[in-house]
Every structure is written in structure tokens, then in C-alpha cells.
Design brief:
The protein is mainly alpha-helical. The chain has one domain. 73% of the residues lie in helices and 0% in strands.
Length: 326
């Protein structure tokens, strides 16, 4: 299954394949659905692998397929003026993003982590206002406030000691750091995607991450294994390599080639929904009422910030999510 998924996106030509906004939205949505499942896959894989070893193996497998394909399909020449941006891209994501995300998932639940990641569109708009001089409207400020209050609900719930996670406050702070890194990555990638193909950006990211996390893996005291790898852990590793890395990053970079960064970032909202549903099925995770309130505030904040017209909360939202609440 994995090779088929790989061949689907590497055989297709980058230029002209996603030539419409509809296809751009589809690419962004597909990437975010895969990333939603990846939170649960990471939790499963961490039962057998140490964090840095998992990341090193994930990107090494991806690079083993990407580098030959990149060479075969005529690699692009990198311009010297863009080397600084490529370095920043690699440091932010995969570098610091996956370091914070994988470490954070050791201490907090996949569901709560994905909800914090869902605040990325708001952070993207804040960075756009600061560095790209994009105007901040009243609705954007309101959306930022709602999102921050929602995150506070999630963190407060974990600070009261009732969370089953190991050290949820630390985990949530690490996930918030990952969200900030992803926001910087989105803006930088948008700039580079105007000059380079998605395959080029994805290959450089995977190669950088392999070297970065391989070095970190040597700092871990153990052999990189917590326990003998299970079938589930190995399957999760392959999913993370072929789909969450190869397919999802290619799709996301392809969407940034077509759409503004702020429009692409909106699709990050799919991640919490997919993760919560997957975590419910695979990990039997649930959300408490305070966490559900925080989730609604985060999603509403992003909706207020990114949509025009009247703001309406779907009437069936709470009813539809009651199954996820203890």
C-alpha cells in the first residue's frame, strides 16, 4: 500500500498538475487529514522507539525514496540567495517542529495536542501581520483572543492534576512551540514555493531532517528502542514515512504553490477533528467537558479569523461530539 501511495505523487509532474484552486484546496485537505492520523501513529510508535530514533528512521526511509526520484526527475538548481531561507525552513520544520511535537506527545494526549496544533492558522496571520505587514482586522483580533482562551482551557484542565497524561502541562507547551514553528514554516515555504517545485522542497526537508535527527539519536542513552518493535509500531513507522512525510509534505507544498499561506493554513483545522476521532477508535482517548469547551473556542476562533460574513456555530457541534466526552 505504501509504495502505491508513493508512486501516486512522485510520478505526476509538479508543474500544471494542480492548476486550479479546487485542486489546491484538495491537496491541503489531503495533507491535513494524513497529519491528523499521524498524531495517533506517533503515539503508537513511541511505545517501541525513542523519540529521536523514531524521527531519524521516519525521515531516513522517506529520503531513501525521495533522493533517487529527485535526481531521476531532473533536480532544480538552488539559488544562493535562497540558502538562508532553506536553512530556516529546515530548522523550523522538520527540525524544531517534530522535536517539539514528538517530545510533547510523550507527555500529553494526541487529542489535546492536535487541538493546540489547530491554532496554527491564527499564528500564521499574526506572523503575517508582523513580518509581511498584512493588516489585522477586528475579527482577526477576536479570533486570536478566542483561540488563546481555548488553549488556556486545555492547559488549565491539565494543570489540575486530573489528566491521565504523564506531564500534560509540559507536553502542551511543547506542542504550542511546534505550532509556532509550523507557522513560520508556512510563511517561508510560501515564499520558496513560488520558485521551486514541491518535490524539491520535500526532498530538501527530508534530507535535512534525516541528518538532524540522526545526530540527536546518538545522544539518547538507550539503543533507540524502548521495547521490541511490535507490528503496530512498525506499521506506524511506515505510515509516518510514506504518508505523513512523503505524501503529506508534497501535497502541502503543492497547495502553497497555488494558494496564499493563510488560505492553506485554514485546512489545519481538519487535523484536530481527524485526530480526535482516530484517537477515540485506536487509543480510546476521550475529552472532558472543559477540554471540549477549549476545543470549541479554538475552532471558533480560527473560524472567526479566517471567514467573512456572520459567524455561526454549527447547531449540532456539541451533540455530535458528546460521544468523545467522558
Amino acid at each position: 500500500m505504501a509504495p502505491c501511495g508513493f508512486s501516486f505523487f512522485v510520478v505526476l509532474r509538479d508543474r500544471g498538475m494542480l492548476d486550479g484552486y479546487g485542486k489546491g484546496y484538495g491537496a491541503a485537505a489531503g495533507a491535513c487529514v494524513i497529519w491528523g492520523v499521524s498524531f495517533v501513529a506517533t503515539k503508537v510508535a513511541l511505545q517501541s522507539f525513542t523519540p529521536y530514533m523514531l524521527l531519524a528512521l521516519r525521515f531516513a526511509v522517506a529520503s531513501a525514496f525521495l533522493l533517487p526520484t529527485f535526481v531521476f526527475f531532473k533536480r532544480e538548481k538552488l539559488h544562493g540567495r535562497d540558502l538562508g531561507l532553506f536553512c530556516l525552513l529546515g530548522v523550523m520544520e522538520p527540525g524544531l517542529y517534530f522535536l517539539c511535537e514528538t517530545r510533547g506527545l510523550m507527555y500529553t494526549s494526541a487529542s489535546v495536542a492536535s487541538l493546540i496544533i489547530g491554532s496554527i492558522p491564527v499564528f500564521v496571520m499574526m506572523l503575517g501581520a508582523a513580518f509581511l505587514k498584512e493588516p489585522v482586522r477586528l475579527k482577526t483580533g477576536l479570533g486570536v483572543a478566542l483561540t488563546l482562551v481555548g488553549i488556556a482551557f486545555l492547559v488549565h484542565k491539565d494543570m489540575d492534576g486530573s489528566s491521565p497524561a504523564a506531564s500534560p502541562l509540559l507536553g502542551n507547551l511543547l506542542i504550542m512551540g511546534a505550532a509556532l514553528c509550523a507557522s513560520v514554516y508556512t510563511i517561508v515555504s510560501r515564499s520558496l514555493s513560488a520558485r521551486y517545485r514541491p518535490m524539491t522542497l520535500t526532498t530538501i526537508q527530508a534530507a535535512f531532517a534525516t541528518a538532524f535527527f540522526a545526530l540527536l539519536a546518538f545522544t539518547e542513552s538507550s539503543s533507540g528502542m524502548k521495547a521490541p518493535p511490535t507490528v503496530q509500531a512498525l506499521g506506524s513507522l511506515l505510515f509516518l514515512a510514506f504518508f505523513a512525510t512523503l505524501a503529506a509534505f508534497w501535497l502541502y507544498n503543492a497547495s502553497l504553490r497555488i494558494l496564499p499561506a493563510s488560505q492553506v493554513a485554514v485546512w489545519i483545522n481538519l487535523i484536530p477533528l481527524v485526530t480526535v476521532l482516530t484517537a477515540r477508535i485506536v487509543l480510546d482517548e476521550t475529552l472532558s467537558w472543559p477540554q471540549l469547551a477549549g476545543a470549541v473556542l479554538i475552532l471558533l476562533g480560527v473560524r472567526v479569523s479566517t471567514r467573512t460574513g456572520d459567524i455561526r456555530l454549527p447547531s449540532r457541534l456539541l451533540k455530535g461530539m458528546q460521544v468523545l466526552v467522558r
